[in-house]
């Protein structure tokens, strides 16, 4: 029985790795559940469309930072997302579909000295039927630049993970247009 429990726990454990890509200011990250891009602190500030990073010190998130941010996300998103704003039907609840998004990670230190990882989420599971209707997102590559999307409901959202306070902050789910 104990061996079975150990086996099950190991199977559920998320493995994660980073790798170099052709873009020098970006790092690919892949896990057994999702993939994304880490933007290094050398990524041009004028290509980031996050107001708080204009005056903040940026840092390049490590794999340990990303693992910690993802664990906090997994543990806290359901509570933070209790109002289900811009999410229609259980199949669109972001907290039930975390593994169906491509991520973009940006690290910064806020004015209080807290270490923050801003995460953009882009729906990465368009069905064949969706694609035939014209729904698709070609930005979901490791080399894509930082992107801001307006509208789209729960297909596009973002949150700040405060590593210092161990808390999610500023959840923003796009509107529907």
Describe the model.
With 177 residues, this protein is α+β, with helices and mostly antiparallel strands. It has one domain. The protein is built from three helices and eight strands. It has helices spanning 2-12, 63-80, 128-132, and strands at residues 16-20, 26-31, 35-39, 57-59, 101-109, 115-123, 156-162, 167-173. Strands 1, 2, 3, 4, 5, 6, 7 and 8 form an eight-stranded mixed beta sheet that branches. The longest helix is centred in the middle third of the chain and has 18 residues, at 63-80. The radius of gyration is 17 Å and the shape is globular.
Number of strands: 8
Q: Please state the average pLDDT score.
A: 80
- What fraction, in percent, of the residue positions are helical? 10-25%
- Which ranges are low-confidence, i.e. pLDDT below 50, for 5 or more consecutive residues? none
| Structure class | alpha+beta
- Termini separation (Å)? 52 Å
Residue fraction in strands: 25-35%
Radius of gyration: 17 Å
Q: How many separate helices?
A: 3
Total individual domains: 1
- What is the string of SSEs from the N terminus onward? HEEEEHEEHEE
Largest sheet: 8 strands, mixed
Gross morphology: globular
Q: Any descriptors?
A:
globular, 3 helices, 8-stranded mixed β-sheet, 177 residues, 19% helix, alpha+beta
Short structural description:
This protein is α+β, with helices and mostly antiparallel strands and 177 residues long.
């Amino acid at each position: 029985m104990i061996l079975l429990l150990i086996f099950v726990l190991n199977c559920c454990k998320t493995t994660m790795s980073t790798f170099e890509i052709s873009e020098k200011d970006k790092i690919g990250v892949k896990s057994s559940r999702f993939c994304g891009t880490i933007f290094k602190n050398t990524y041009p500030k004028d290509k980031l469309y996050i107001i708080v990073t204009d005056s903040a010190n940026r840092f390049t998130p490590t794999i340990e930072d990303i693992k910690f941010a993802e664990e906090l996300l997994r543990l806290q998103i359901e509570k933070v997302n209790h109002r289900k704003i811009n999410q229609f039907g259980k199949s669109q609840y972001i907290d039930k579909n975390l593994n169906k998004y491509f991520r973009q990670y940006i690290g910064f230190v806020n004015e209080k000295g807290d270490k923050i990882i801003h995460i953009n989420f882009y729906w990465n599971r368009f069905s064949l039927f969706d694609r035939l209707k014209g729904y698709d997102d070609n930005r979901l590559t490791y080399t894509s630049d930082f992107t801001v999307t307006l509208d789209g409901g729960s297909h596009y959202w973002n949150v700040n993970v405060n590593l210092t306070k161990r808390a999610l902050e500023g959840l923003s789910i796009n509107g529907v247009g």
